[in-house]
TrEMBL record:
CDD domains: PRTases_typeI (cd06223). Its EC number is 2.4.2.9. One of its GO terms (molecular function) is GTP binding. GO terms for biological process: UMP salvage; uracil salvage. InterPro entries: PRTase-like (IPR029057), PRTase_dom (IPR000836), UPRT (IPR005765), UPRTase/APRTase (IPR050054). PANTHER family: ADENINE PHOSPHORIBOSYLTRANSFERASE, URACIL PHOSPHORIBOSYLTRANSFERASE, CHLOROPLASTIC. It is an enzyme of class 2 (transferase). Catalyzes the conversion of uracil and 5-phospho-alpha-D-ribose 1-diphosphate (PRPP) to UMP and diphosphate. This is Uracil phosphoribosyltransferase. Belongs to the UPRTase family. The keyword DNA repair does not apply. It comes from Botrimarina mediterranea. Its cofactor is Mg(2+). The gene is upp.
Length: 209
């Protein structure tokens, strides 16, 4: 499947409302990000490949399944760190490969400051984790890095996106799969999502500026 999937769920609507609220404190903000990441990951992992196995219960032996592919979680620092644990809870065998990117405040262009992907042996499926997709510059940089590593299937999991950023990523990577909780209509002059939720990294890590 390729394209943009805006995941529909009443719990997403409720959690997103609290997440947007400027009065929501950091500890609750982090919990909301976790819940939304779980709901996104449930949707984004529907097509993971499993193989048959046998399992012995206390009573008998029966058919079962186990993952048949290597899954990599690729959180974009900092804000993506808030999404790792809930997705790892769902996929305990996943590898975690961090990418350090920040947006230059003047240009809104992504600047890479950490990447340690090993040469060769790419994962089969990469899940990029970042709660915010604004201009799309950061995820485009991440997609380019993962393509150079040789990853064939990449899914982006983002809580909130701007339509402009979605359009930019879809143009640069027509085969991209983007799972979002909500697409907001506007980027302001500082390239922040409106209505949005502010700076996700600062709200997760309680670093007001
Ligand atoms: O789509 P874009 O226009 O590239 O914007 C989205 C990026 O901006 C934010 O990171 P930020 O630069 O604030 O870094 P931080 O997570 O360290 O706060 C966010 O977490 C994304 O990585
Ligand atoms: O609105 C925005 C845009 C980029 N990064 C954020 O954290 N928020
Ligand atoms: Mg930030």
């Amino acid at each position: 499947m390729s394209g943009v999937i805006e995941v529909q769920h009443p719990l997403i609507d409720c959690h997103l409302t609290r997440l947007r609220d400027a009065r929501t404190p950091s500890d609750e903000f982090r919990n909301l990000i976790r819940r939304l990441a779980t709901l996104l990951a449930y949707e984004a992992t529907q097509d993971l490949v499993v193989e048959k196995t046998q399992v012995t219960t206390p009573l008998t032996t029966t058919d079962g399944s186990r993952l048949a592919e290597r899954i990599g979680l690729v959180p974009i620092l900092r804000a993506g760190l808030g999404m790792i644990d809930p997705v790892l809870d769902l996929i305990p065998s996943a590898e975690v490969w961090h990418l350090g990117l920040y947006r230059d405040e003047a240009t809104a262009e992504p600047v890479e400051y950490y990447s340690k992907l090993p040469p060769g042996r790419p994962v089969d499926v990469a899940l990029i984790l970042d709660p915010m997709l604004a201009t799309g510059g950061s995820v485009t940089a991440a997609l380019e890095t993962l393509k150079r590593w040789g990853v064939r299937r990449v899914k982006m999991l983002s809580v909130l996106a701007a339509q402009e950023g979605i359009d930019n990523v879809s143009r640069a990577f027509p085969d991209s799969q983007i799972y979002v909780c909500r697409i907001d209509p506007i980027l302001n002059d500082s390239k922040f999502i409106v209505p949005g939720l502010g700076d996700a990294g600062d709200r997760i890590f309680n670093t007001p500026r």
